[in-house]
Specification:
- It is a single chain.
- A hairpin with a 2-residue loop joins β2 and β3.
- The longest helix has 22 residues.
- The protein folds into 2 domains: about 40 residues, no CATH class; about 90 residues, no CATH class.
- With about 140 residues, it is an alpha+beta fold.
- The chain contains 4 helices and 3 strands.
Length: about 140
């Protein structure tokens, strides 16, 4: 929210009070135990989703939020947001190509699951994508 400076500490106090209340009541532990019962494996994902039996999930997906400049708080005299990064979680995809623009700059992120890709493979994949982008840009100049 744009008025985060005005409400941050009130928000932090309310989160702290709620967490303390749940810890004292044991509710937070019940919720944590419930979460542990849920498996985040791809097999479980397929069994609880609406994906038809035998359907093969794609290896990747893409997401583009367009220009996110208006969604980001501007900061203060001493703080200025220069980049916005976002992540997609709890998907069955090996990786997600995340696109958006911020302050007139195109930003690309490769969000990947370490369950499906090693860091080395993800970095190599991302480097190849950037190599291809640079080649296309150089061909256009």
């Amino acid at each position: 929210p744009r008025n985060i400076n005005e409400i941050f500490w009130d928000f932090a106090r309310s989160v702290h009070q709620e967490l303390q209340s749940k810890l004292k009541s044991g509710m937070a532990l019940e919720e944590e135990a419930f979460d542990l019962l849920k498996s985040d494996s791809i097999d479980n994902f397929e069994s609880v989703s609406n994906i038809p039996t035998g359907f093969v999930l794609p290896d990747y997906n893409t997401t583009n939020m367009g220009d996110v400049t208006a969604l980001v708080t501007e900061g203060t005299d001493h703080i200025r947001v220069t980049r916005v990064m976002r992540s997609i979680s709890n998907t069955a995809f090996a990786c997600t190509h995340v696109f958006h623009t911020f302050r007139g700059r195109f930003l690309y992120l490769l969000d990947y699951s370490t369950r499906h890709l090693s860091t080395e493979i993800a970095e190599s994949f991302c480097n190849k994508i950037f190599d291809n982008l640079l080649n296309v840009i150089q061909d256009c100049i």
